[in-house]
Structure of GtrA/DPMS transmembrane domain-containing protein:
Amino acid sequence: MKITDVIFALIAGRIIGFLVGDFLREWGIDIGLYWGLLIWLVLPLVSLACLWLAYKIGRKFLFIFQGAKYFLVGAVATIIDLKLFEFLFWIFSIHITFVTITAKSISFIISTFFKYWGNKHWAFLKHEKEDIHKEIIGFFAITLVGLAIDVMCFYYFAKIMGPQFNLPDAIWVKLSVIFAALVAALWNFVGYKFFVFKK
């Protein structure tokens, strides 16, 4: 593993820890200073350990290591997506479906710019500059289909399915963003690996 792998895994784990702490607070669980520090210290180490394990397995099956890095890039991008969505939703403060879907679309597109850079330069290690226009067009074509999948899944989970397990609306909306991102992520990984960043 390279030092960039270690650094990015630790940063991704820290960002995921931030989201976990945020969820616990919204569920009314007071994590306190001790548990907060534990989450912030343990999740980066777990992230690094999982990436190291994927690296070892990836020596025989490269897609495992690529998939682990793709997952970390996607996790950070999903948190960017979620926090930006919450910010836009807070700015508009209107619970109209069109505004909600527009805010979700904007947050998805901006987080996609981060995904492009992270996947190109870190997950799939494609640093070549030839055919960059074709690569960018392919990336955004795959991503636009991913956007449609993401928004449709978000709408299904948040509006049609609605809150489950007696969870508050605010938590269910966050979970809907994450569930939608996971479904779109499967499509995107296959598209990026085999069509956009293939070597």
Remarks:
- The mean pLDDT is 85.
- Residues 62-92 form the longest helix (31 residues).
